[in-house]
What we know:
The chain is an alpha/beta fold. It has one domain (31-238): NAD(P)-binding Rossmann-like Domain (Rossmann fold), CATH 3.40.50.720. Helices cover 34% and strands 17% of the residues. It is built from 10 helices and 8 strands. The chain has helices at 5-10, 12-15, 21-30, 42-52, 85-96, 114-118, 131-144, 172-175, 188-191, 195-214, and strands spanning 32-36, 56-60, 101-105, 123-126, 147-154, 157-163, 223-228, 233-238. Helix 7 (131-144) links the parallel strand 4 and strand 5 (147-154). The longest helix has 20 residues, at 195-214. The radius of gyration is 18 Å and the shape is globular. The mean pLDDT is 93.
Amino acid sequence: MELTEQQIQRYSRQIILSEVGGKGQMKLSKAKVLLIGAGGLGSPAGLYLAAAGVGTIGLIDGDVVDLSNLQRQILHSTATVGMPKVESGRKTLTAINPEITVKTYHQNVDSENILPLVSQFDIVLDGSDNFATRFLVNDACFFAKKTLISASMFRFEGQLATIKPHAGCPCYRCLYPEPPPAGLVPNCQEAGVLGVLAGTMGILQASEAIKEILGIGETLADRLLIYDALEMKFRKVRRPKDPTCPLCGENPKIKDLSMDYVVNCTI
């Protein structure tokens, strides 16, 4: 299978990059990426993955578009208020690139549907707004041996990490072994978030996904990237593998997804 003339024209600016080329573009067209949440992080990530030519993009979100979303969730518009986010997102992504396939799941993730879902994709991008979902997605990707790119936001700060325990790298629980008690850490709805911060972090997620697909650049699999929008500062901190991790450690306590994950909203 070769690129068509139209595809060569569409992707010409990245095909001329020696790190991409025609072979890299074919890798992108065959890749399957799942977005957990079609909100603040999933919006910019989805837009740039679609524009880059990622062949299959999955959107899972059980919410509908609300007017309060539009300050940061750029997949949606005033015209799609009240529409399921996954349908609004599908319309936007296919308008940008009609050659890609967008699979939609109008539901929330839970311990029953997450494993069959992530197993269909190569890479998972987590754009959720609560620890329960992040731990559920991390654990599911561990058992399915899928690469996870996790981002989070709080007010003016964002964090980003690539999770690849199947490649010998630390998992999310190596950094945070257990979720904090419910109500201790406010979500974006309660604490607020700068809209453009979602754009920055979502685009960084898309960038990391493209690098993973192409096998280029330096991975974040053993680092945590922290971004401060007020100070305009990026910094990386080491994220070592924890031998006592309850999931990927030497004597794991978590063997399946039978534990109780209390899942609520996405951003």
